[in-house]
Amino acid sequence: MASTDPEARGQRRLLTALTVLIVLSSLAPSARLIIEALGGLSLGGDAPLARVLSAPDTWQALWHSLVTSVLGMLIALLLGSLFAFVITLTDVRAKGIWVFCFMLPMMIPPQVTALAWLQLFGPASPLLASLGLAPALGSPQPLYSAAGIGLLLGIQSAPLVFLALRTSLLALPGELIEAARIQGARQHQVWGQVIVPITRSGLIAGGAMAFTASLGNFGIPAMLGIPAGYLVLPTLIYQRMASFGTHVLAEMAGLSVLIGLLALAGVALQQRLLQRSRFGLIGHTGRAHDFTLGRSRASVETVMGLVLVMILIAPLAALVVGSLVPAMGVPLNAATATLDAYREMLGRQGVTWRAMSNSLWLAGTAALVLMALCLPLAYRLGRLPARRQAWLLGIIEIPYALPGVVLAVACILLFVRPLPLIEVSLYGSLTIILVAYLARFLVVCLKPVAASLGQLDASLEEAAQLAGAGPWRRLATIVLPLTAPALAAGGILVFLTAVNELTVSALLWSAGNETLGVLIFNLDESGETVLASAVAVVVVVLVAALMLTLNLLATRLPRGVIPWKE
After folding, report:
1. Is residue 192's pLDDT more than 70?
2. What CATH class has 46-93+148-280?
3. Is the pLDDT of residue 282 over 50?
4. Which of 206, 353, 378, 481 is the most buried if burial means most Cβ atoms within 10 Å?
């Protein structure tokens, strides 16, 4: 036994070193960004952040960001709370289907969402032309506005409100609801006087997440705002980078720090409001008894169905129609229907296969690398004191909590020069996008694994330790087999999120290194909207297939691993 102690100590040191390395890697981009943004202060000069704050364009873009993010948050609160309350607490039928359909917009890339809605409205809409409802040529596109951006941001982030509020609703003590009913309270009184006040923390958390997600969203403001000259902070950074190159990186760092500060301020406000609205609940938590809708159930289900038709089915139908016509504005009928866009995309456009190959390689490699890192990382973090564990998890979450454009600028600053010692440059290569994905999506893979580890019986590992097995052997023979489903789910979630990513790759891609998200954005920007629609349809099918795969794994996974499953 004594002979194995040095080996066990060495394995623990290796695990600790791996944890420290991963944490420092997560912190490095943000640290480099702050240093660049505050550069010049120590020399008495103007810091890039100060120059950015003195520019009128910054304040205009900041105002636009706040307007669209707040509008998106309000729409997300309305939609998310409606579906969360009805699906979780009432006796509506087919709840799993409702949840899956409502969660789908969050998984669809924002540029695809924007493209689908652009195909749905306006004078060039093939769907409206097919129905004879298209406005006159030359009519303005209503989505090219702050209201259009806010609407789509709200639809995209409504599932975040749904998830946060549903978590609070599932934790309601059933005894509390029953006590109110015994006292003679009617359903609307129980709803308004008991449920809503107690679940206020879930609403606050969901609203804050929706605001932060809207603030950092690039795809929707880019496709709806740039044509109208309505710039928000992420699109202002994109235009500056596209117009002036890398010599303005310092000012881009200043803009990125400004977005980051806004996002962190939103998180801080969320924490403060949560502390003031938190209730101490006593009793058995779990799903409360369903509210019986009675004769109103059919009406409620109809309203929910109409909402889903408007926010999901109709835009996707317009996207499909837009991919089957020879040009925008042409109605779809037996004479005009064509698969030329798909033939062009798959048969003659080499960039499509290159972008698909790049996206699949980046997403697959990121998923595999993070799966390999997350098991030992979660294992080591689980054995740290609670306070130290919370600090380290907070650092790991920084790249995911910050808007993607901030991480992209940070990676450019970090890797714009060749790496020391080996003199290899990552800038302009696929590798820099992969590094950004690893930092950004680490927490996406880590959380399911950590949740699964928290449910393991400690006696199994203790028995193996008494038998002389070191940490690595226990990981391989006991922990890995038991956590494999959660590890696979984490990898699929990373793949699902990364394969269509645009916000990070929009600033990091270069010729020959396009991703699917970048390809859709570039095709639409260059006027090849039909081709962009065809690529987008393929992307939606891929997303839906991956979500269904996760659903099939649901029965073998701990609760909370798949966001849209109880």
Report:
1. no
2. mainly alpha
3. no
4. 206
pLDDT at 54: 80
* b/e sequence 267-301, b meaning 16+ C-beta within 10 Å: beebeebeeebeeeeeeeeeebeebebeeeeeeeb
The pLDDT mean for the chain works out to 78
Fold adopted by 1-36+341-566: MetI-like fold (1.10.3720)
Residues 521-524: contacts with CB under 8 Å, at least 24 apart: 521/111, 521/219, 521/222, 521/223, 524/111, 524/115, 524/118, 524/223
Secondary structure, 3-state, 374-423: HHHHHHHHCCCCHHHHHHHHHHHHHHHHCCHHHHHHHHHHHHCCCCCCCC
Give the three-class secondary structure for 90: strand
Return the top range by mean pLDDT from 204-218, 257-271, 455-469. 204-218
Strand-pairing partners, residue 173, are: 285
Give backbone dihedrals phi and psi of 303, rounded to 5 degrees, phi first: -60, -45
Q: What span, in angstroms and rounded, lies between the C-alpha atoms of 333 and 329? A: 12
Cα–Cα distance, 47 to 54 (Å, whole number): 11
Section 27-32 average pLDDT:
74
- Residues of the chain with pLDDT > 90, as a percent, come to 9
How many Cα atoms sit within 13 Å of 467 on the Cβ side? 11
Query: In terms of pLDDT, which residue wins out, 505 or 246?
Result: 505
Same fold, 1-36+341-566 and 46-93+148-280: yes
